[in-house]
Design goal:
11 strands; 219 residues; alpha+beta; four-stranded antiparallel beta sheet; homodimer
């Protein structure tokens, strides 16, 4: 079964635990743009990504967004089972940024395995600590980095992620990632364009001078 | 032994695990103002607070600070053993805000127990998730709340924590908690004073109209 090779601590589970998971796991395809988890209402279960990309973000009362972290192939999505973790006291939204295939382990099965298995609980700890680290990075960014550096970092990350310098992305979506109003993004992108760093067309942002972007971050 | 009643999952550990901890745990007194953990250099071990108060914060390159969370009586301090958690990828500083008494479990003993014991690993998960929640709250605050509301919330928390309306605290220290320059704090406190909310004297901030502060937050 392909699933077993994707499940992180599979070989450290007991035969009974493995059987319980195998008997209850389901496979699901999530189309791009679909919301898989929204606040505390949802509790689909533990998700294990086969392929695709998920984005976790929070939203203000006014509907402003900021991206917290992303998940890729082979990543495990804990917060879609957050109803089973009573110390998780915040609302997060998780959406598919690309067409995504996941295995889903029901919340109660996930809880039972985590309660029994030290390797599983420790693996969850690693995930939690790594998300924690990402949020700490974000705090440092928004507290102490100016917006031009944050935008430069975002554009470089996106070009690496998409494998192209020509990003199909609107200024509003960039704003949603960075927690900033569209106007602020537009203003900074126009400045970048005047500096010969990017080229803007309707619906695209093309990075034409990546070294200059990198230099901007290091300054 | 008093220690056992402070250790969260003591009764769920095996006799061997209990013995290992009992044989290696030490008791330490930390004077107010002392730094117990600083970035990745330090790894004192898992700390369990008997009495006192610890503050965890991060620092910018320029020396600006922002408080991430605090620990009180009976709390467990994971990050003083962060060398044992490889996914913790950030530097945090932890200082004693009051005279503090802790039990310290050596890092390798902590690691061995966490690896073996599902209850211990799950307890760590709860702590991690609750700190994670605190940082998410902080992100929401700094992204979407204006500074007057953040300062109002801080003053109310402090008066509750210290059990007095007359806080012995400098504007610089308030700035360190909130990640803001001293001048910004002073300006806002003077505005609060002009509104009859606080009374300022050298080295103290007295909250004279708490209901008004609460109203400010709810607005």
């Amino acid at each position: 079964m392909e699933f077993e090779s994707y499940f992180p601590v599979w070989n450290q589970l007991t035969t009974e635990q493995q059987k319980l998971i195998s008997d209850t796991v389901t496979f699901r395809t999530i189309p791009k743009g679909h919301i898989v988890h929204n606040g505390s209402m949802d509790c689909a279960g533990l998700m294990l990504l086969r392929t695709g990309q998920l984005r976790a973000y929070i939203m203000s009362d006014e509907g402003r967004e900021i991206t917290i972290y992303r998940l890729f192939d082979m990543d495990m999505c804990l917060f879609t089972a957050s109803c089973m973790m009573r110390s998780v006291q915040f609302d997060i939204t998780i959406e598919a940024e690309k067409d995504t295939e996941v295995w889903v382990i029901p919340p109660d099965v996930f809880k039972k395995i985590a309660d029994e298995s030290a390797p599983m609980a420790n693996y969850m700890n690693e995930i939690m600590a790594s998300h924690f680290s990402e949020v700490m990075w974000l705090v440092e960014q928004i507290m102490w980095k100016s917006f031009d550096k944050r935008l430069a970092g975002f554009l470089l990350d996106e070009t690496a992620l998409e494998g192209t310098n020509k990003l199909k992305i609107t200024h509003e979506i960039i704003g949603n990632h960075l927690g900033t109003a569209r106007e602020v993004v537009t203003r900074m992108l126009r400045y970048f364009q005047s500096e010969g760093i990017v080229k803007l067309t309707r619906g695209t942002v093309e990075v034409v001078d990546a070294p200059k972007l990198k230099k901007l971050i290091e300054k």
